[in-house]
Every structure is written in structure tokens, then in C-alpha cells.
Amino acid sequence: MGAVGGASPARGSPTATTADTSGMYGAMGALGRSAPTTAIGLLVCLAMIFVCGCGGEAVPTCASGAGACSRVLFLGNSYTYVNDLPTTFARLAQSGGHSVEVGMVANGGETLSQHASAADDAGKISSAPWSYVVLQEQSDTAAYSSAGSLMYSPARSLADRATRAGAVPMLFMTWAHKDGEPGAGLPSYEGAQERVDGTYLTLSGQLGVPVAPVGYTWYHVHLDHPDIGLWQGDGSHPTAAGTYLAACVFYASIFRQSPDGLRFHGGVADSQAQILQGEAGRRVLDMQAQWGLR
């Protein structure tokens, strides 16, 4: 995952035209930059989660005989399992009065191509009546100009499986590395985030599936509220606030409701959680057509 694992796309691979995101961003001044630290070595929550989260507390489930329930399966890597994004989302949804159940298949540095060829993923997609199947690519990949050609086929395969199983595929637009992606010719965070966003928006249009704009919202929180630390010291993985922001974006994207005012704050300071809730609601709901949320 990013600096942690997984190969970057090869230079010279076929490229695909990405969506123009230049109008989505304001001017960003010089940002503080820190050198990446040693990669995370301990996998906190591998593979699949249903009953217990990383902290050992019960995770919300669809009670037998309950009313409408949203089941969300996350296919990702360390950006998904660090701080346990699925469970954070589930508890946030529960605080909003939604009945939810989550699942996860995530290993460090895992790519969409690896997910598409893995038996675990195929079995998991067919294991429950999922409402949504979330697709997340390895973090470096989406920042390269060759990302479109690398991501399309596996994303199409996974999206088709999800659709056949009765679920809505949803892309997870990730955040870029704090120090950009120099290997892709993008030495700044701003440039890398625009590339990542364009990659996911293009893929969303090609596949006709919605995208949860976590990276886009992350950009604006970082720009407008630089005191809220979203990256860990490695400049790649999320802090608790970063994961909570992602959960808020998924809440708004899936339920078409703002998380503003919800009482579950995921260990984030109340004042910061309120900011993250408001930003997620605004960035998602004010641009629903942009994100394919119909």
C-alpha cells in the first residue's frame, strides 16, 4: 500500500484519458512536508470482519427479522483495514439510525487485480445479500498516468460480480500521499490528489458506477483545516481522524444523508469530528451528480 507495499505501475504502459478535475480545486499554498517513516509492519485486522472489530467490541449486524438493512462489503487493503474503516462506518451508521452489516477482504498492498483473481473475494461477494461492494485500488496505482489501463479490467470484473449478486459497486476514491507521487512526476500532494481523483472519476464514468469521494473531501479538509492531522507519520496511512473522515464520506454517499450532528465520533475530538462530518456531508451531497450518486 503506497510506501508500504505493492508495485507501482510500470512506466510506458498504455495510458487512458482521465477526467478533468482542474475546476474542482482552488489554489493551494505551500504545504508542510515530512519524510516518510518506516512502513507499518503489524496488520491490525486482516481479511474479513463480521462480528468483532479490532477493539473487540461488537460490530453492528442486521438482526434477524429486522427491517431494511444495508450490507456493505469493503474490498481493499491497508487504507481500509488500518483503524478498521468498515467498523467505523458501521458504528457511525448505527448512530444515524441505520441498520447495517459490514464485511471486509483486505491485505496489505492488495490491488484490484489481485482482488479480481482471488477466491476469497469471489466467495465473499456471493456470501451475503450485499447492498454495496466497495472497490479500492492500491494507493500508488491511481496516481500514475497508466492507471486507467491497469484498473479498468479488474474493476469491471469485480463490479460485474457485485451487480450479478444484487449489489451496487462503489469506487473508493482514495487520498494521495502527503508528499505526492514523485515516481509519477507528481512531487506535490495537490498534483497527486488531482490525478487520483481524475482516475477514479474516469473509471466511475466508464463503469457507470458511483464513487465515494474520500480523496476529494480529504483535500478540502487538509486545505481548510490543516490543524486536523489526517495522515500518520508515514505520510500515507490514515490517522483516526482520516479514517473517521472516510467513514463520514461513505455514510453520505450510501445513505444520501449528511452525518452532521451524529454522536459517534470514533475517538476523534468532538470539535474535529463535527468539522469532518460537515465537510463530508457538503462535499458529497452538493455534488451528487459528479459522483454518480443517482
Outline the structure in words:
The chain has 294 residues and is an alpha/beta fold. The chain has helices spanning 78-81, 85-95, 112-117, 119-125, 147-164, 189-207, 214-224, 240-255, 270-285; strands spanning 70-76, 100-106, 132-135, 168-172, 211-212. The protein has a five-stranded parallel beta sheet with strand order 2-1-3-4-5, sandwiched between helices. Helix 8 packs parallel to helix 9 (270-285). It starts with 69 loop residues before the first strand and ends in a 9-residue tail after the last helix. The model is unreliable at 1-17 and 27-55 (pLDDT under 50).
State the main characteristics.
294 residues, alpha/beta, Rossmann fold, 5 strands, disordered N terminus
Give the CATH topology. Answer: Rossmann fold
Classified in CATH, the superfamily is SGNH hydrolase
User: Over all CA atoms, what is the radius of gyration?
Assistant: 17 Å
Level-1 CATH class name:
Alpha Beta
Give the rounded overall mean pLDDT.
Answer: 85
Q: Based on the structure given, which CATH architecture is correct?
A: 3-Layer(aba) Sandwich
Q: What characterizes the major β-sheet?
A: 5 strands, parallel
Number of strands: 5
Span between termini: 31 Å
Strand order of the largest sheet: 2-1-3-4-5
- Roughly how much helix do the residues carry, as a percent range? 25-40%
Q: What characteristic shape results from the CA principal axes?
A: globular
Structural class: alpha/beta
Return the domain count.
1
Give the count of helical stretches. Answer: 9
Strand content: 5-15%
Low-confidence stretches: 1-17, 27-55
